[in-house]
């Protein structure tokens, strides 16, 4: 392990097995806090390569609490780290999809670079996170949606919380989030915060059997933001969509801001579900939901937009939200 640390310190890239070992040792607290901070800081200053990403994921999946779901499901998850402070688009998409009949296993966490992450919003509304596989499958059966709060399924990462908080910035663990859903969903709708990460994720996901859609807005959002052109990759294609090629008109960044508090973000969350949000807020949720639905169903984007619109305008998504929060 000392050789791996020295190799990393000297600026060398790690093999899959070396990266896996490094992550296991990090989570096992076999480095002191300055060493851990150095390693995390190093990966903040340079990009991971494919072997390192694969090795880190291997280790985190070994350490996680696995979940077996009886329905083929999709995760709708972004890396975060874009420092854009958007409202909770992917979490809203999870409710829109589930109300449309698409099984969703939503992996989420507390915010690291925004006002409110997925878990912050759900906790604000009083949702109690579940850990038992039977309960999660029951939720999936009844509601087409189960919530997997990351800290409950990645207990080894708790050891690193003090160092990560001390760094006061996103780390490689945020980057790993969409890849380490403990349910290992068969479908993924993934947003990433820059083009190099998009390229890395695309290469990595192509090596597996997951059916995926990967998106990155070129002005730095880890979702389709309608503020710029967007890069979209799937198992079979890679394309750059100009803003005027998208089915909704472009918007300004401030139109999808979460505000200054969890309460502000929560107001937007409910407004979208009740179909009382602004046109910009609603359209961003609809478009991301539709791309995720297309990933799962293979239907045309227009058909998926129509289904997601009906999910909101019929109040089905809002009714589902109330049912889940009250359970």
Strand order of the largest sheet: 1-4-5-6-7
Characterize the overall form. globular
Oligomer: single chain
Report the structural category: alpha/beta
CATH architecture of the largest domain: 3-Layer(aba) Sandwich
Whole-angstrom Rg: 19 Å
Question: How many DSSP-defined strands?
Answer: 7
Query: Cα distance, first to last residue?
Result: 47 Å
Tally of discrete structural domains: 2
Per CATH, the class of the largest domain reads Alpha Beta
Number of helices: 15
For the record, what is the CATH homologous superfamily label of the largest domain? Nucleoside phosphorylase/phosphoribosyltransferase catalytic domain
Strand content: 5-15%
Mean pLDDT: 94
Helix content: 40-55%
| Biggest sheet details | 5 strands, mixed
Q: CATH topology of the largest domain, which one?
A: Pyrimidine Nucleoside Phosphorylase, Chain A, domain 2
Element pattern in H and E: HHHHEHEHHEHHHEHEEEHHHH
């Amino acid at each position: 392990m000392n050789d791996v640390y020295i190799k990393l310190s000297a600026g060398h890239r790690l093999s899959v097995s070396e990266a896996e070992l490094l992550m296991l040792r990090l989570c096992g607290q076999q480095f002191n806090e300055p060493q851990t901070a150095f390693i995390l800081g190093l990966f903040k200053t340079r990009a991971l390569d494919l072997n390192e990403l694969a090795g880190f994921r291997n280790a985190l999946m070994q350490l996680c609490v696995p979940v077996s779901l009886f329905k083929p499901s999709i995760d709708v998850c972004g890396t975060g780290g874009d420092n854009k402070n958007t409202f909770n688009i992917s979490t809203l998409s999870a409710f829109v999809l589930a109300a449309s009949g698409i099984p969703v296993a939503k992996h989420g966490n507390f915010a690291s670079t925004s006002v409110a992450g997925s878990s912050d919003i759900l906790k604000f509304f009083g949702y109690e996170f579940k850990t038992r596989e039977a309960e999660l499958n029951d939720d999936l059966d009844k509601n087409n949606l189960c919530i997997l709060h990351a800290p409950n399924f990645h207990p080894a990462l708790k050891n690193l919380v003090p160092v990560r908080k001390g760094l006061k910035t996103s780390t490689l663990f945020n980057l790993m989030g969409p890849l380490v859903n403990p349910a290992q969903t068969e479908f993924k709708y993934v947003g990433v915060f820059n083009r190099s990460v998009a390229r890395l994720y695309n290469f990595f996901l192509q090596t597996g059997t997951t059916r995926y859609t990967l998106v990155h807005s070129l002005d730095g959002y880890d979702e389709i933001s309608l503020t710029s052109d967007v890069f979209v990759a799937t198992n079979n294609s890679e394309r750059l969509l100009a803003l005027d090629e998208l089915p909704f008109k472009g918007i300004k960044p401030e139109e999808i801001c979460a505000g200054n508090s969890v309460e502000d973000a929560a107001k937007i969350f409910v407004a979208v579900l009740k179909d009382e949000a602004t046109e910009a807020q609603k359209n961003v949720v609809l478009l991301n939901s539709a791309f995720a639905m297309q990933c799962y169903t293979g239907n045309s984007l227009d058909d998926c937009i129509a289904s997601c619109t009906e999910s909101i305008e019929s109040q089905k998504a809002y009714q589902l939200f109330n049912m889940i929060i009250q359970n």
